[in-house]
Amino acid sequence: MTSRRSTVRGATTTSPRADVAPRSGRQHRARRQRSGTPAEPQQLVVTALSHAFPAPGAGRVLRRGVSSAALENVSFTAEPGTLTAIVGPSGCGKSTLLRILAGLVTPDSGSAAIGGTDLVGSPGGVAYHPQRDALMPWLRALDNATLGAETCGRDPAVARREARALLERFGLLGQERAWPDELSGGMRQRVALMRTFLMPQGVLALDEPLGALDALTRRQLQRWLLEIVALDQRQILLVTHDIDEALLLADQVLVLSDRPGRIIHIEARPDAAARLREAESGGDRAASTKLLTLLSGAGGSMNTPDSANSGCG
């Protein structure tokens, strides 16, 4: 069967041919995301990821004996409708792990897939929230918030309507026309977080998204994240340096060792209602002490209300 060509508004298109092979899973996923269709919730499977960077001063090309291992044999699964927190010492590869899942870094070995579709080396498979807000200085707050969704092919009018509905919850009501340099650091981070949540991907990878927020807004967004996990059914991966935040928000907490990062413990957590009760009553102190002990042995320190405000990037 030969193809038929037609012109729509001056553009030439080709109708499908019967002898063309079906799209691969990656092509199908890319097409869905370009059309803005929300991805169907599916299991995330990470298997034996390892990666090394050039050692300081070694240049960009890895040579024997001059590499610096960042991650080693990292494996875990995450189910739809769950939040997985990732904690560990500073420099243990937490952000590298998210960048691998986001398709921005190609690991030396291992695999990562959602619903059987490979994520490695394929940007756009997850909605990625970096540590920096990365707002476009020439776009107003609302336009920055909808930029990711529109880039993925979502209807701009729909994205803007959903963004306006979230303004009050994100503490941005009345700021939608502000330029980035007119916003505080916390407000900029909230705009960036909204941008991530408006994207259609089935996995959200959040790198310390609440770290720059004031205590009240942080508490409000923590509660909102709990609601989103229950209602949205997307997986959320959350890098945090705050143990109490991890214990409150996560269905499971991955504890990474010092560099190279290896998973040394997976802390299973009760349901969200039980976690809220624990946080309010102090019932999560035993779990907090356990994780602090593990991290002390792993060569790092973490933040709790009773500990110093130490970094853990």
3D architecture notes:
- Helix content is 33%, strand content 22%.
- The chain is an alpha/beta fold and 313 residues long.
- It folds into 2 domains: 45-126 and 205-304, 3-Layer(aba) Sandwich (Rossmann fold), CATH 3.40.50; 135-200.
- It has a 6-stranded mixed sheet, sandwiched between helices.
- Strand 1 (5-8) and strand 2 form a beta hairpin.
- The longest helix is centred in the last third of the chain and has 18 residues, at 215-232.
- Residues 1-35 and 304-313 have low confidence and may be disordered.
- CATH class bucket of the largest domain: Alpha Beta
What's the overall geometry?
Answer: globular
Which residues form runs of ≥5 with pLDDT under 50?
Answer: 1-35, 304-313
Largest sheet: 6 strands, mixed
Order of helices and strands: EEHEEEHEEEHHHEHEHEEHH
- Give the total of domains: 2
Task: Write the CATH homologous superfamily of the largest domain.
Answer: P-loop containing nucleotide triphosphate hydrolases
Give, in spatial order, the strands making up the sheet with the most strands: 8-9-10-5-11-12
Can you count the beta strands? 12
Helix-strand category: alpha/beta
Name the beta content range.
15-25%
What is the average per-residue confidence, as pLDDT, rounded to a whole number? Answer: 81
What count of helical segments does DSSP give?
9
Label the CATH architecture of the largest domain.
Answer: 3-Layer(aba) Sandwich
CATH topology of the largest domain: Rossmann fold
Percent range of helical residues:
25-40%
What's the N-to-C terminus distance? 56 Å
Output the radius of gyration.
21 Å
